[in-house]
Amino acid sequence: MATTHTKAAARLMMSPAVILLLIWMIVPLALTVYYSFLNYNLLMPGAHNFVGFTNYRYFLTDPAFITSIWNTLLLVVGVLLITVIGGIALALLIDQPMFGQGIVRILVIAPFFVMPTVSALVWKNMFMNPVNGLFAWIAHLFGMQAIDWLAQVPLLSIILIVAWGWLPFATLIILTALQSLDEEQKEAAEMDGAGIVSQFVYITLPHLARAITVVILIQTIFLLSVFAEILVTTNGGPGTQSTNLTYLVYQQALLQFDVGGASAGGIVAVILANIVAIFLVRLVGKNLEA
Amino acid sequence: MARTVSNRRKWTFTIIAWVIALLIFFPILWTFLTSFKTEGDAVAVPPHFIFFHWTTENYSEIWSRSNYLLYFWNSVVISIGSTLIGLAISIPAAWAMAFSPTKHTKDVLMWMLSTKMLPAVGVLVPIYLIFKNTGLLDTRTGLVIVMTMINLPIIVWMLFTYFKEIPNDILEAARMDGATLGKELIYILTPMAIPGIASTLLLNIILAWNEAFWTLNLTAANAGPLTAFIASYSAPEGLFYAKLSAASTMAIAPILIMGWFSQKQLVRGLTFGAVK
Fold first, then answer.
1. Which residues of B fall within a CB distance of 8 Å from A274?
2. The domain containing residue A61 runs over which residues?
């Protein structure tokens, strides 16, 4: 079927996408690498002399850097844990026979469509505010002291806000996989005396492996660069308690106008993301093959 | 196949599921309700859930205070524009990969996916500077370019997974019957590809509509979409919940409604066809 003629046509059809992506990737990345070796601040026009690895040294020895790496990881892992476990639980629940399943689905999927700036502001003000927020009111109802979420536990608050937005995604994908599970297999296991727990562990969970892989992969891509939620709630603070790598580089670039330093930070972020990516692509390559 | 379920069990699950679903949905519902309150009612303790003085004042105030239509229009142009351009570039590519795959096809796809993992901050500085020097900063054109490029890998992947499922046999049968390439495209492939293209279109409009890294960093007063419109309400603390809610409702309603209508198509697209 694939003659030389169609092969040439295929290459031609693919080339715009491939070439554009290549340019989009290589040109800015090369520039970032170049800037990262310069002493280049937008507030000091003119002089951008070569400074070797100075920018990297500053960036990597900045105490905020280690904090931001840690925060980035906590954010990704925290949100993944909540959404995957919550998603499995919710999917199992929604999969049960019930009235109004369609409406339940619609309600559960809704947070996915809410833009990050809106969800962050709504949670920050109307729920987590220590004076007027609903959480404060609930705490008072139970005679507890209201906590100032974004000041006392900023990273946890952001994890919760982001997880709320991604829970529907995980739920929906796991639910889709769940619905393709062969009922007869479960019935056979039940007849053989398998309890609900062992049915779940030996039949349901392996069946969901692929769906969970997809959830982890796609969410990780987006979670590594959470930005807006931090920008409109805590601005990375208090101090650097909720600064992730993306936010740290943003601060360096657009708030301090330090092109060189921000570029070094960007390259560090790229390297770290690549380590995660290699791991993930392997995982996906294996799981999507079958 | 369907086991008979006792009514009691069904009701139990119904109640549990509805309670949880309403809890998850609650922030959106609460935002919607608050948008019709006076500022006083919005912060009342204990909260007023339904019995308050309903008013549409917040909407008219937001409407007159900020240029909602401009932001809305920017969101529309950026999300739909970038999606259409992305589709125009991706359809031939995905087509070729699905129908005349070579041994490199999988590598190309994996490479495309890996560009999605390039963190945006890694290229923020040069893009910002290039845009600044070419006058693309704070323009819709600039954002359409960025959105097209960041969503391109996803579009190609999604289309590829859809196209791959169109059976090759049908094409061959058509060729045997003497269909020309043009006829093959119009009468056989297009009708079979349209559902896939449609759900790719929908998902990417949603992703672009809600994207908030590039839109916040590359826009100011002129090209800011609704994500930026809402961020401008982040500054004041305290007595402004009703207006914030009205603005939020106006920002999310269009895409929420669209998403609800297309949820079935979205799920499959989102999983890159990996989950059926």
1. 117
2. 57-289
Question: CB B125 to CB A266 under 8 A?
Answer: yes
Instruction: Name the CATH topology of B66-232.
Output: MetI-like fold (1.10.3720)
Residues in A closer than 8 angstroms to B120, CB to CB, are: 225, 227, 246
pLDDT in tens, B8-42: 888 999 999 999 999 999 999 999 999 998 888 88
Where are chain B's structural domains? 7-61, 66-232
- Of B18, B124, B226, which has the smallest distance from its Cβ to A115's Cβ? B226
N-to-C CA span, chain B: 19
Distance CA B34, CA B243 (A): 8
Number of domains in chain A: 1
Q: What tokens appear for A238 in the block?
A: 């208090």
| Residue found by looking up tokens 């502001």 in the block | A121
CA B83 – CA B80 distance, rounded (Å): 5
Q: Is residue A11 part of a domain?
A: no
Binary contact (B274, A168; C-beta < 8 A): no
H-helix or E-strand containing A49? strand A49-50
- Residue A35 falls inside a structural domain: no
A41 three-class SS: strand
Whether A240 is in a domain gets the answer yes
Q: pTM (2 decimals)?
A: 0.89
pLDDT, tens digit, 9 for 90 and up, residues A60-108:
888 899 999 999 999 999 999 999 999 999 999 999 888 888 899 899 9
For residues B194 and B206, what is the distance between their CA atoms, to the nearest angstrom?
Answer: 18
- Looking at residue A184, which CATH number applies to its domain? 1.10.3720.10
- Chain B nearest C-alpha distance from A91 (Å): 10
